[in-house]
Specification:
about 450 residues, alpha+beta, Nucleotidyltransferase, domain 5, 3 domains, five-stranded mixed sheet, four-stranded antiparallel sheet, about 45% helix, about 15% strand, globular
Amino acid sequence: MRRHAEPSTNCTAEFNATAHKTLAPGRKTQALQSVQTDAFDTSLEYLIGTALVPEQPGAEPRYESQWSLEPTAEKKAFEQFIATVMDRWKRYPDLHIYHYASYEPSAVKRLAGRHGTCAEEVDRLLRAGVFVDLYRILRQALRASVESYSIKQVEALYAFKRSISPRHSVAALQTFETVLTLGTGEEITKNVLETIEAYNRDDCFSALRLRDWLEDRRRDVEAATGQALPRPETKSGEAGENLAGQLDRARNIMDQLLNALPVDQTEWNDEHHARWLLAQMMEWHRREEKSSWWEYFRLCDLSDTELQEDKTALGGLRYVGVVGQIKKSLIHQYAFPPHPQTKKSAGEVVAIDERNLMIDLKRGAPSTVPHPTTLIPLDIVNADVLRDSLMRLGSWVAVNGIDAPGPFRAQKPSRFDCPSFAFSPSFAFSGKNSHGGHGGHGVAEMIEKKHTPASFAARELK
């Protein structure tokens, strides 16, 4: 008969100490785990669950759930969640959101882009390191005798008992998602919703219990070494001076353009629509770049081992040597395995040999940048010139109006001349529309294909 032994751990104090330095401080925390998502085509984040650590000592953690059965409710639930986090963060600067693996922060970014809301708040949370991935800490902190490091596999380490069996929770999730996606008209029973919420609540409290268990292991390491382990530095998350100045300039121009508009949109004429459209374009490039920057900094934060496992990076590089020269630049070759991180450019990719697992990079001969062990993409086109041009145009129009003669007259007809048309801003500027399309590309496509705003909007609404 096969016997199932309790999991055991085998780890060294040094490895524990290194990993536990990333465990964030503070007890007034908020554990986010989990966000439930429709597994089929709608991609609706239909349930956000949080376990709130009590503000009063000795009180029990409190679970809160926010359901969304359609996109409008999803946006409202997301905004409510972010508002709760920001309010709690203001009162407790050491607040952190604990989650297990990367899905939750990815969902937060996705919701901000999909609905075009709370992006600046999400930026602050990410810059401040408010999100803490317990999965990463656990993997780096110990080796455990479990089949995998999924949260359900490691729960035996900290003696967490779920209220809902995996079989019942999976059946409820599949039933709910089928009804939600296929729209069969069948009523979703109260029992199914209660089972899903109990499953989500178990995930939240399991993450919270894991956090406490890791804190106990941290204290064990400190007792064994006789030294206190450092904590990550608490950050404000405020934008840097350059970014803050750029945002202030863009918003001042937007205010100047929008202040002249009637409150009632039905009273808008052609110039009013044009001023509104131009105002939205002041932050358009930043909105478009945001997801790429989020992804870039996510990759920069990963270890070499994690980068080798990530599908968007090329990790585990081994320097081979110089294999050629182009003018004053040398061609360096690196071997990489089948599928020191630096934020400086490692060079220009000249060739990739996937059969022999080799990549060649061109670098200036005098370059002193260390040879990389990992390559990560930076898929961002520098839009500073375009951004500055739009801001100059916006500043001029705010003072002189759309139709006044002047230096920007040639730029206006193809972009702003249009018959009166009252259209929603969401399809063009939200980053992703309710149907999953990338509506944020609307303005660029409109200009490139010489659509007027009205003709472009009419095409999108067909």
